[in-house]
Specification:
By secondary structure, the chain is an alpha+beta fold. About 35% of the residues lie in helices and about 20% in strands.
């Protein structure tokens, strides 16, 4: 009996300690949790990919709970404007029976996310644009919508255009596998990449002219990235290492953050040792397009050989794929081997 009584006393103490520990945990945790005394009800799948801070805001006077979602996505370009819309984020928990409302949040509507002006999007047919828009909404905003019924060829072309116009969207997850795989990147890591890119864009935007901005972006990437195979854009900003696609995607994203029209071009290139798949960029200054190969300018240690060049100069060793057309670059921008404008 004494043993049983000792066991029961010990068990009661353990239960009490566990309850106190749990109450203490509830009192210090504020990450998307309901009020401690509220009953929990699962309502929807968590979709916090673009959110960095979610929490319940409790009004003691009315005992009403408001779920606050603060978007901290640094895509806003210098001097740009934001708009405010109702958040569409869903959560896994809510106080049962409590009045819950969603506070308005700010979203970026800058150049980088305005796909309607982008070159590849504008080159598509109606069905191809429809699938492009579907991909963009899935990838950027996690929207739920039926997949448009288009031909396999239209789908393929739309996906190529979508990826070449929007390399920054590799940072975002998706509900539907419209690319090679689902992104598992955390919001904190994604924003670290975006902030690194935006820091370069901010530096470029201290200048008014597109040429000056492009030179800053080009030089910053050369100074901070070293070539390494199988390292893509994320590694370019977080590790300072990239392959040709990493350079091209990083250059495109920073240009778009700075308000410069830029696309990624895929094809092949002959570096003297053979022909291999390669990626580079095209940028628009005024009404004219120019080729830029940041990777080769870095690897070949001749900083401006492939900066703002014409198709004639690039066709000697660069060949773009033909499934999706690129703009024509009929002119060489007046820049010398030191990167100085010669106008």
């Amino acid at each position: 009996m004494k043993k049983n009584r000792a066991f029961m006393i010990t068990l009661c103490v353990c239960v009490l300690l566990a309850g106190c520990s749990n109450q203490h945990h509830n009192s210090i945790s504020t990450n998307a949790m309901a009020p401690p005394d509220a009953a929990i009800e699962v309502t929807a799948e968590t979709t916090t990919s673009v959110w960095e801070e979610d929490h319940w805001d409790i009004d003691p006077s009315s005992n009403k709970a408001t779920f606050i979602t603060e978007i901290k996505d640094p895509l806003c370009a210098p001097g740009g404007s934001n708009y405010t819309q109702e958040s569409t984020a869903s959560t896994t928990t809510k106080p049962k029976g409590a009045a819950v409302k969603t506070k308005a949040v700010k979203c970026s509507t800058e150049f980088i996310d305005d796909y309607t002006h982008k070159y590849y999007y504008q080159s598509l047919t109606g069905n191809q644009k429809k699938y492009y828009r579907y991909c963009f909404d899935q990838k950027r905003y996690l929207t739920v919508a039926p997949e448009p019924k288009v031909s396999d060829k239209d789908k393929r072309i739309a996906l190529i255009a979508f990826n070449r116009d929007n390399p920054h969207l590799v940072l975002y997850p998706t509900r539907y596998s419209i690319d090679n795989g689902l992104t598992s990147m955390t919001a904190k890591k994604r924003n670290k990449v975006l902030k690194a890119a935006k820091a370069i864009a901010d530096k470029a935007c201290k200048f008014d002219r597109t040429f000056d901005k492009l030179k800053v972006i080009h030089d910053e990437l050369l100074d901070n990235i070293a070539y390494e195979s199988y390292k893509e854009m994320i590694s370019a900003f977080l590790e300072g290492k990239a392959d040709c696609s990493g350079y091209a995607d990083a250059f495109c994203m920073v240009c778009q953050l700075a308000g410069i029209e830029c696309i990624v071009v895929w094809g092949t290139a002959n570096n003297g040792a053979g022909v291999n798949e390669h990626a580079w960029n095209m940028v628009r200054i005024g009404d004219d397009w120019y080729n830029v190969d940041v990777c080769w300018d870095d690897v070949k240690h001749d900083r401006y050989t492939y900066f703002l060049r014409s198709d004639n100069a690039f066709c000697k060793n660069h060949t773009a794929e033909t499934l999706i057309c690129c703009p024509n670059a009929s002119k060489k921008y007046p820049v010398d081997h030191l990167g100085n404008e010669t106008i």
